[in-house]
Design a protein that fits this description.
By secondary structure, the protein is mainly alpha-helical. The protein has eleven helices and no strands. It has one domain. The protein is globular.
Length: 232
């Protein structure tokens, strides 16, 4: 993966990034097979759960774009969307485990200028993470904290066209970094699907989705103690 370089690219069958993106699609297909074709039905219908559901879907949507962008040799775009993907999962986690009724009410309003202004008083990403770390299960918080420590700041540079993307466009994007970031995106996607299973309330489905990564360790991040990062 060479950024703006005109060097010949590997054919798709030999390109490790494309191969991992394809394998990641297989991982998501296996996860989707754990859910009914009719879609997610909330075990408890509430504004809080509906908002968390929407944030999970955002996280999953972003993961598809991340994989596609890396596969078509658009790594800077992929990195920017990966940052958005993390924030969507963080928002879902905060809504489910830490948001107050007043905060939920603000996010659940019809989209108007007044509602947009009120939403500006909601917690920042750092504030949400602090609340989530104190309230959510360790299996979720470990991944969010790891991403925040090692990946978020570098990926912010891609959102703002900062030093990281400008340097990568000039020098090329390392293949190993691309592979690591696809795996991290898959990990965030997996957590979003786990939260969807939780919202549906069936323990058997939750267990199946949670442990499915064991069949796809080649396209998942390592355990939080050694998870791949976006450091460069």
């Amino acid at each position: 993966m060479t950024g703006s370089s005109s060097a010949p690219q590997d054919s798709p069958c030999n390109d490790p990034v494309v191969a991992l993106a394809d394998r990641s699609d297989e991982f998501e297909d296996a996860i989707l097979a754990c859910f009914p074709s009719t879609g997610v039905v909330l075990a408890i219908e509430s504004e809080q759960n509906q908002l968390a559901l929407s944030a999970c879907h955002l996280c999953i949507e972003h993961s598809k774009v991340v994989k596609t962008a890396f596969a078509i040799d658009a790594p800077s775009s992929a990195c920017g969307v990966l940052r958005l993907q993390y924030e969507a999962l963080l928002r879902a986690s905060w809504l489910l485990f830490a948001a107050t009724p007043a905060q939920i009410e603000k996010l659940g309003r019809e989209l108007t200028p007044e509602a947009e202004l009120a939403a500006k008083t909601l917690p920042t990403a750092g504030e949400m993470l602090s609340k989530v770390l104190a309230a959510a299960p360790a299996g979720l918080t470990a991944h969010l904290a790891e991403f925040n420590e090692y990946s978020r700041h570098a990926l912010n540079s891609y959102v703002h066209s900062g030093i990281h993307p400008l340097r990568r466009v000039r020098e090329g994007f390392p293949v190993e970094m691309a592979l690591n970031l696809i795996r991290i995106s898959n990990g965030l996607m997996h957590m979003a699907y786990r939260m969807l299973a939780m919202l549906m309330g069936l323990q058997r489905r939750m267990d199946k989705v949670t442990h499915l990564y064991q069949q796809f360790t080649d396209c998942c991040p390592m355990a939080p103690s050694g998870e791949a990062s976006a450091k460069s």
